[in-house]
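Need the bound structure for guanosine-5'-diphosphate, inputs here:
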Amino acid sequence: MVFEGLAEKLQNALGKLKGKGKLSEKDVENAMREVRLALLEADVNFKVVKQFINTVKERAIGHEVMESLTPGQQVIKIVNEELTILMGEKESKLEFANTPPTVIMMCGLQGAGKTTTSGKLGALLKKKGKRPLLVACDIYRPAAIKQLQVVGEKVEIPVFSIGDKQSPVNIAKASIEHGKKNGNDVIIIDTAGRLHIDEDLMEELENIKNEVKPNEILLVVDAMTGQDAVTVSESFNEKLGITGVVLTKLDGDARGGAALSIRAVTNKPIKFAATGEKFDQLETFHPDRMASRILGMGDVLSLIEKAQASFDEKKALELEKKLRNQQFTFEDFLDQLQQMKNMGPMSQLLEMIPGINSKQLKNLNVDEKELVHIEAIIQSMTKEERINPSVIDGSRRKRIAKGSGTSIQEVNKLLKQFNETKKMLKKFSGMEKTIKKKGRFN
Ligand code: GDP
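Answer from helper R.:
Posting the output first, comments after.
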């Protein structure tokens, strides 16, 4: 769950208001005390917390809430709106150059996820039809160039490098010429990072900025570092004038402090959020969706977008036909499992469903391993067995269990479930036919 501790505490504090028919000022005061503590414990900047609580209180003690029939819901609505405003209100899109190439300069401290994010951003833009070029400007860290080349290979995006003997400013300048010649419309410059902010680093970044005049200067910060990420953002912004922030490692146990304070402190938007090490785990940052997720109100829009990006429409139509005609086989099942996996870990998907709060999510105890076992069992079947499971006798079951590293019981369970699903589909299809005959369906 994103910001698990914070989410749980906020949902607890606000949950107490939910069922009440009438709210007293004292009820609101008490709830706000808990909200304040939850935010401070999540490492949100104290000035930001103070301002936030004051605004929410002012609105919550007003007439619109006190006289409403569902005052608790109204307070939750206000908290949701103010959290959204705190994180920037609306998504902030990338600025593209009127005449390509668009130049994006990536900066940040070492280990924040700059190189990985450069690759992810390239992959995201490529999916949208752009032709990005990655540029290796970190000439100091051993193997930094090689790392970017490996990233480039994985996301199938060209990498521009002229080794570590040239200055980063020269490399950046040359990369633009190279990009123009080769039809690259977005140039993503991966700059060097340091363990701490220092004058040399800032001067070098400034020099690159002055030379290539980037359309975007994105600062990559590790969300797990909380207030440190906010301080780093302030320094980079003061010295360099960043255009936006990318928050990484939101899949880890970040407490929320960075996400909730950066915008308010620096007045620069969070443009993207990274939720894992894989190259497709970078999302546009939507403040409203993030606020809803924190308050356990789900994020259906992101869920739908993920589904649309991962599921193949043609395959879905074919599958529907097969389901109707009961021709669904283990081959199709495997295909479905693999498409589902493309959407990301089950726990990340579940938290986007409205009404599943942090406590329930914990209790659900999503067993990703079970899916892995099911996949292994199907993969240990022969093609014939997948299409016609009735041939799977005792000795075949033994072989499949052994081949997949599972037990005969698990194989039996899967086969039984599969047969029951088929029976159920048959029933449904029968029902549909009768209804159609009676003319109750179009
Ligand atoms: P750089 O020094 O800023 O270029 O950082 P790298 O791109 O080398 O990333 C440092 C480490 O963080 C690597 O092990 C990455 O795989 C990891 N990393 C980057 N982004 C994420 C993320 O969103 N989630 C997780 N869990 N790990 C990440």
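Comments: The chain has 21 helices and eight strands. The radius of gyration is 26 Å.
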